[in-house]
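Name: Na(+)/H(+) antiporter NhaA
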Amino acid sequence: MTATTTPPRSVFPRGSWPETARITELLRRETVGGALLLGATVLALVWANSPWSGAYARLRDLTVGPHALHLDLSLGAWAADGLLAIFFFVAGLELKREFVAGDLRDPRRAALPVVAAVGGMAVPALLFVLVNLGGGSEALQGWAIPTATDIAFALAVLAVVSTHLPSGLRTFLLTLAVVDDLLAITIIALFYTRELHLPFLALALLPLAAFGFLVQRRVRSWWLLVPLAVATWGLVHASGVHATVAGVLLAFTVPVIRSQAAGGPDAGPGMAEHLEHRVRPLSSGFAVPVFAFFAAGVTVGGFSGLTDALTSPVALGIVVGLVGGKTIGVFGATYLMARFTRASLDEDLRWVDVLGVAVLAGIGFTVSLLIGELAYGSGSERDDHVKVGVLVGSLLAAVVAAVILRLRNRTYRRLCAEEERDSDADGTPDYYEDEPARGA
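Structure predicted for Na(+)/H(+) antiporter NhaA:
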């Protein structure tokens, strides 16, 4: 009798073809958003360091909104509290879809990006704390700043260096960033809530429940859903919890899989996919770039000013956390998971590919800037140091990741070419069509 051997597990297995195709299209759209994000950041930096910097500050600090509802906020605050709620709504939809209907509903597939995300948050936070131990409790409030990964910025870097990551690494990077966002919003809710008003938080459950009821009934009327979402956001804001939390809560009420009465999972896109398709362009094309425009405009004051800012333990801790902490955390967690589960890399991949993705995860921008404002207060000296640290750390991570990934780009191109060459007329690569046979 011939003994059967179980094929070794892969650290970055290819997902199903529908999931791979969906993620490829999603990343393509995020790349456009990353270019807009990059443009908004450059514009803010140029304007804030020009002779017209005063006009930029006046625009950012312009107060609008009803005072009676405690919503008389500056434009910068509206971008941070309001527009980023849209960003977290999309992130929440993507996370729920991945774990309910995507390949990550398999706990074995979900374990790696989740563990890598946790490692990629714990190590940067630890390094930041070590750098700022002598700065007192106020300096340590920014421990969570270097823990976030900005997927749009990371994809913009990939587009600039024209690299073609294999599908397994692309899925890993996207899922890592989405889980990262969920952990970040949890940190914001738990550690950066200054005062909590429970009555407003309890009242927020009413429009939230109504929104959930409607989307569960597959109601798509914007004139019903948008007012309920805005009411939930306003009440969460009034409760003292950061208003972006409302975006995630709303997203988690949206059903992912179509009901049997509506035709079941094979009857087309579900409610979550429908809303994501509608809202994602608003998030990546407007909300995040506008936030970046108002958040990234720090007056550096030339090379000497940049040097002075980087001597601050806060800025230094952020740079060390983003460049060193993210790399160690993501790569180390991935390597340990592989050793623990006795999984191996795909035959075409090397550990240097994982290292490149781990360094790329050190591009922290949107959420890092948000946490910096919450930790030290918008416009404070330490907040300016945060912006310098985030910009320099993200730039260093981008450059190092670009160098590493470009060295392997010839291999990536070959893998993409082989996948396209193996495709049939229907556009589905043979690898995926053979999945049932391989799993039998």
